[in-house]
Amino acid sequence: MLRTLEAAGYAPDIVAGTSIGAVVGGCWAAGRLDELEAWARSLTPRRMFGMLDVRLAGAGLIAGGRLRAQLETHLGDVAMEQLPCRFVAIATEFGAGHEVWLGRGRLSTALRASYALPGIFEPVRIGGRWLMDGALVNPVPVSAARALGGRMVLAVNLQTEVAGRGTVIQAQEEPHDEPEPEPAPDAAPRFRRLRLRRGRRSAEERPPVGVHAPQPGAPGLPAMLVDAFNITQDRISRSRLAGDPPDVMVSPRLGRIGLFEFHRADEAIRLGAEAAEKALPQIEEAMRALA
Q1: In sequence order, which residues have a C-beta less than 8 Å from that of residue 237 and are 6 or more positions away?
Q2: What is the pLDDT of residues 97-115, one digit of tens each?
């Protein structure tokens, strides 16, 4: 989207970004978009897995040290006050739930706080606050762009196709002709007092092991977590955009690209360019109206 704007002669004076939007917007503002794009296009599923330093302790499943090293390699000690345009990254304060605008200090640290997805990446401590992903409070920060002085605001909404257009289903009842799923053999655990004995018990003496058999077709844990996050972002985005709509909305059709499928950067970048091309007439009309 940014490449398309530049080719059409537009350069934003203000950039407000949340999560991956903060990363892309911050790298563009710092003149490091080429490096980010080259790195993203080089990713494969295997390289993506290698970037995720998984751990079982701490506040996040991924320590984030390798991604942090990538950011610091390309951004160094760049401060947000030194950027040629006004920039703010949106984060959420842990516990209080405050929406925090990060516009001063080290750029790479602010970006890490803005994409710290709860349960996946550990929160980042800035100014005495523990901060996590800003998508929990403001996924498309139109309000921040306007507060910083933006007269014509262009928003990029990545959730248009991801979570669908959910509605309300009233009085949902279970079909009468659908049989109840039968429990798996020995599914109900049995509890009884056992005397300690020396030696190993035979198979006949061992108590039955409780087994939980998931229902056929039920979603797994990873799918549940990703879908829950997508639905939450979609509902928050709709609410915030209804109260403060942008002048022009760019909505890439990303429904078939998963939340963590960063190795599909070529496809995502192409879809972003296509959406921005379609929005150019609206941008030109909005600019003429304001002029």
Answers
A1: 139, 140, 157, 159
A2: 999 999 999 999 999 999 9
**Measured distance between the N- and C-terminal CA atoms of the chain, rounded to whole angstroms:** 23
> Where in the sequence numbering do the catalytic residues fall?
19, 133
Query: Who wins on pLDDT, 163 or 252?
Result: 252
Long-range CB pairs of 208-212 (<8 Å, 24+ gap) are 210/186, 211/184, 211/185, 211/186, 211/187, 212/184, 212/187
Strand, coil or helix: what is 154? strand
Residue bearing tokens 């003149």: 31
Beta carbons within 8 Å of 109's beta carbon, 6+ residues apart? 124, 126
Q: Quick one: tokens of 124?
A: 């980042």
pLDDT tens for residues 132-177?
A: 999 999 999 999 999 999 999 999 998 877 655 666 777 666 665 5
